[in-house]
Amino acid sequence: MVLVGVSLIVFSLIHLVRGDPVRLALGTRYSQETYDALRHRNGLDLPLVQQYVTWVGRALTGDLGVSFRSGGTVTSLIGERLPATLTLAFAAVFLALLIAVPLGTVSALRPRSFIDRFATVISQIGISVPDFWLAIVLILVFAGTLGWLPTGGYVPLTEDPLGWLERLVLPAVATGVVSGSVLTRFVRSSVLEAMGSDHVRTAQAKGLPERQVFTWHVLRNALLPLVTVTGVQLAYLLSGVVVVEIVFSWPGLGQLALQAVRSRDYPVLQGAILLFALVFLVINLLVDLLYSRIDPRIRR
Amino acid sequence: MRISRTLALAAAGTLLLTACGGGDEVNTGSGGGGSGDNILVAAVSAQPDKFDPHTTSAYPSFQVLENVYDTLVVPNAEDLTMEPSLATDWTTSEDNLTWTFTLRDGVKFHDGSDFDSADVVYSYNRIIDEKLQNSYRFTNVTSIEAPDPQTVVLQLTKPTPNLLALIGAFKGMAILPENAAEDLDLNTEANGTGPFKLASTDANSTELTAFDDYWGGKPKIDGVEFRYITEPTAALTALKAGEVDWTDNVPPQDIESLQDDKEVDLQSTASVDYWYMSMNFDKPPFDDPKVRQAIATAIDRDAVTEAARFGAARPNETAIPEDSFFYYDYAPFEPDVDKAKQLLEEAGVTTPLTMGLMVTDAFPESVTAAQVIASELEPIGIDVKVETLDFATWLDREAKGQFDAFMLSWLGNIDPADFYEQQHITGGSSNYQGYSNPQVDKLLTQASTEVDQDKRKDLYDQAAKMIVDDVSYLYLYNPDVVQAWTPGLQGYQIRADRAINFESVELP
Question: How far is B438 from chain A (nearest CA, A)?
Answer without folding.
Answer: 23
